[in-house]
Every structure is written in structure tokens, then in C-alpha cells.
Amino acid sequence: MKLIPIVTEKSLKDAKAGRYTFTVLPGFNKAEIRKAVEGMFKVHVTGIATMNYRGGTKRNFRGQIRSKAASKKAIVTLAKDEKIDLFEEKKK
């Protein structure tokens, strides 16, 4: 299964509250996402929210038509006092 972490300002802020954001393949359901996160990071998932993004076509700066693939985003909530080190900010 493909889990790609989304690291933005908003996702790092959510990570402090115990919510972690990943891009997953569009065909996966919440049960499969839960199993993958618990297996990879050895944590307990308490909730999952998913969002589907449609594919489509876009024109680039030359006017050529390019296709954009459909994607799915999952926000995973972990049990209290658990965290994923991948999303931790390094202190200066």
C-alpha cells in the first residue's frame, strides 16, 4: 500500500493535535488505510477522515492539454499520547 505523508504548515499543526495527513491510492477504503498505518508505524488509529479529489484535464502554459490523476487524502487520528516521528518538527 502506498502511504505518502503530506507535510505542509497545516498538516504539521494538525500533527501536534494527533491528526496525521497522508495521500493514498483512490481505491483504498478506511479499513485498509487503518491496517496500513497501524502496521507501518505501530500505533493505534481511533478515526479516519477521507477526501476524494477528481482527476481531469488542465492546460499548461503552452496550451497543451495534460491529464491530472484522481487522488485521495486521508486524515488519521491516533490514540492519546501516540505520535508518528515522521511529522515532528526539528527544533533549531
TrEMBL record:
Native source species: Candidatus Woesebacteria bacterium GW2011_GWA1_45_8
One term of GO molecular function: structural constituent of ribosome
Protein name, per record: Large ribosomal subunit protein uL23
InterPro entries: Nucleotide-bd_a/b_plait_sf, Ribosomal_uL23-like, Ribosomal_uL23/eL15/eS24_sf, Ribosomal_uL23_CS
Entry keyword set: Ribonucleoprotein, Ribosomal protein, RNA-binding, rRNA-binding
Role played: One of the early assembly proteins it binds 23S rRNA. One of the proteins that surrounds the polypeptide exit tunnel on the outside of the ribosome. Forms the main docking site for trigger factor binding to the ribosome.
Subunit structure, as described in the record: Part of the 50S ribosomal subunit. Contacts protein L29, and trigger factor when it is bound to the ribosome.
GO biological process assignments: translation
GO cellular component, one term: ribosome
Family affiliation: Belongs to the universal ribosomal protein uL23 family.
One Pfam family from the record: Ribosomal_L23
